[in-house]
Amino acid sequence: MHGTHRIVSKIQLSEEVFRIEVEAPLVARERKAGQFVIVMYDEEYSERIPLTIADADPVRGTVTLIFQTVGASTHKLALKNPGDEIVLLGPLGNPTHIERFGWAVCVGGGIGLAPLYPIAKALKEAGNRVTVISGARTKDLLIMQKELAAIADEHIVVTDDGSFGRKALVTEPLKELCMQSPPPDIVVTIGPPIMMKFCAETTRPFGVKTLASLNTIMLDGTGMCGGCRVAIGDQTKFVCVDGPEFDAHLVDWNGMMMRLGTYKEIEKEAHDRCHLEMQIAKFEAHAADKESAK
Predict the structure, then answer these.
(1) Model confidence over 99-129: pLDDT tens digits?
(2) Residue 158 half-sphere exposure toward CB, CA atoms < 13 A
(3) Which of 38, 147, 286, 293 shows a CA-CA span of 20 to 30 A to 92?
(4) Is the dihedral angle over the CA atoms 161, 216, 92, 198 positive or is it negative?
(5) Are 132 and 144 in contact (CB under 8 A)?
(6) How large is the average pLDDT for residues 42-67?
(7) Cα separation of 6 and 294, whole Å?
(8) Taking a C-beta distance cutoff of 8 angstroms, is the pair 107, 189 a contact?
(9) 214 in Cβ contact with 243 (< 8 Å)
(10) Could you tell me the strand order of the sheet in which 210-213 lies?
(11) Inter-CA distances, 93 with 34, 121, 127, 221, 285, Å
(12) Residue 139, φ and ψ in degrees, nearest 5
């Protein structure tokens, strides 16, 4: 499904993280855990942003998207308000394979906690025992905590700085869980690439099946551009149509992270220009308010 869709609600979860609910009845009805949408903040050839669907309400006909303002396009998306429209295409990608595995451990880092929620929820509904490990650099970057705690049999929270929960990286409790007898039947990890890489290295010695949801450079989202290609074992795969989930033990993490830096300088320039334009707009609005108050 493609077209313009109305934003029905917007909540700022932290200084850089926003949650929007978008009216998209067909997407809400068809989407499954693990799938994503492509979003554009306008129809004027703006950047195409892949965002995993954090939640959906088929009755209300809405989907929930959570994003962090890391670049020019996400900053402009964050300026949208209820009643405004955005372009949305989806649902895309392969859904997470859900079955009754037994014991499932779901590991999320930072903004990755948003797409982790529907997967953890689906695993719980399938009859699995679900342990969730939530991690972030600091307390303010922990999101979806109430939702995750509500569906998890066990919820472990860690922060890099110890401002909330346990002071540790997510790999520390993950290793402890893998050392139990028997170990988890499956691990699902979503977050920064470096985090997912080390989650894979943590579970590898224990032979625990581990899935990672990848978020690479993506343009069309339909497999035509090849921008999202990644090496999985000895094969080249496209994240948008073959993924977004892959066997974490087979992902070429170093190659993927190197490709993610392809447009780093261009992105930084656009980000800096966006901040400058926003400051100018704020200054002009302030000046106009002062003038009208005279």
Answers:
(1) 999 999 999 999 899 999 999 999 999 999 9
(2) 16
(3) 147
(4) negative
(5) no
(6) 88
(7) 37
(8) yes
(9) yes
(10) 166-167, 154-159, 129-136, 103-109, 186-190, 210-213, 245-247
(11) 8, 19, 24, 8, 42
(12) -55, -40
CA 79/CA 72 separation, integer angstroms: 11
- The two structure tokens encoding residue 190: 């979503």
User: Which pTM value belongs to this model?
Assistant: 0.85
Say if residue 1's pLDDT is above 60: no
Residues in the chain: 294
Give the helix ranges, DSSP H, for the chain.
25-30, 72-78, 113-125, 145-151, 171-178, 193-203, 239-242, 253-260, 264-293
For the record, the structure tokens of 92 come out as 């895309």
Phi, psi angle pair for 267, to nearest 5°: -65, -40
Residue at 290: amino acid letter: K
- Cβ pair 50, 38 in contact under 8 A: yes
Mean pLDDT of the chain: 89
Written as six digits, the tokens of 11 are 């909540």
Q: What is the widest separation between alpha-carbon atoms in the chain?
A: 74
Measure the CA–CA gap between 281 and 291, rounded to whole angstroms: 15
Q: How confident is the model at residue 162 (pLDDT cuts 50, 70, 90)?
A: very high
Q: Which residues of 11-25 are buried (b: 16+ CB within 10 A; e: fewer)?
A: eebeebbbbbbbbbb
Q: Exposure string (b/e) for 183-201, b if CB count within 10 Å is 16 or more?
A: ebebbbbbbbbebbbbbbe
DSSP, collapsed to helix, strand or coil, labels residue 265 as helix
Q: How far is CA 116 from CA 185, 191, 227, in A?
A: 17, 9, 24
Q: Which two tokens stand for residue 275?
A: 């901040």
**Per-residue pLDDT reduced to its tens digit, 176-187:** 999 999 999 999
pLDDT at 23: 95
